[in-house]
Structure of Carbohydrate ABC transporter permease:
Amino acid sequence: MVKSSTKLITHIFVIVSMLLFTFPLLWMLILSTNSKSAVFNFPPPLLPGKELINNFIRLNEQIPFFLNLWNSAYIGILSALLILFVCSITAFGLAKFPNAPGNKILLYIIVGSIMIPPLAGIIPWFMEMKWFGWIDTHLPLIIPTAAYPFGIFWMYQFIKEAVPDELHESAKLDGASDFRVYWQIVLPLIRPGLGALAILSFLNSWQSFQIPLIVLNSSELFTIPLALTTLTTMYGTDIPGIMLGTSISVLPLIIAFIFASNHFISGLTSGAVKS
């Protein structure tokens, strides 16, 4: 009887939690189909409207929506690929060459920098980007992201657990170079960690707002979060347009997570328990 009651309470809690978390997404979809005046009605609309096509036409008239969507997509992909390479090869050096000069100091610096807020050094960072001539380009959103302290520490833990020192030493005895060991042995063994890091990196890039706001001036270069903030007219903010643009921009993330969820979950759980 006690077990049945506990199971029932658990199911009710899960269902209520699911409804609470999914309702904002559903309401966003509903608002994207209503007119600008209807979204301010009381009670607010809880059913889909008939203005989806008109809202979509108005959205594309106000901003280059699909161009902004493409900007976010390719910046996120390039940033994630760069992070995967730089973080994994750096972690390989830290994990498999512990006696190299400055190795431990560098590791301490990387771990310590995780605790520093990313925007703490935004002024010198901006001056550096301006000195490079990268303002109003996408380069500041791609190149500096390679220095991702959490990504390095994440891959460091994976390599320490997944790649035994004996395997590395035997490959070296067979004449393999360090880069060949990294490319042909280490990368396949840490694939779950790479998958999880790729998703996290892409999500961070996709939803980034502060950095694009600081470095981008041209509307055709805007990422999708930045472009949606410009949906204002002389009559006020275009709520349905913002909801429609946000709904479309969230869709690729949901699809990507569905297809990559197994890699993401295995990446989060791998290494949690030592063999």
Observations:
- The chain has twelve helices and two strands.
- The mean pLDDT is 85.
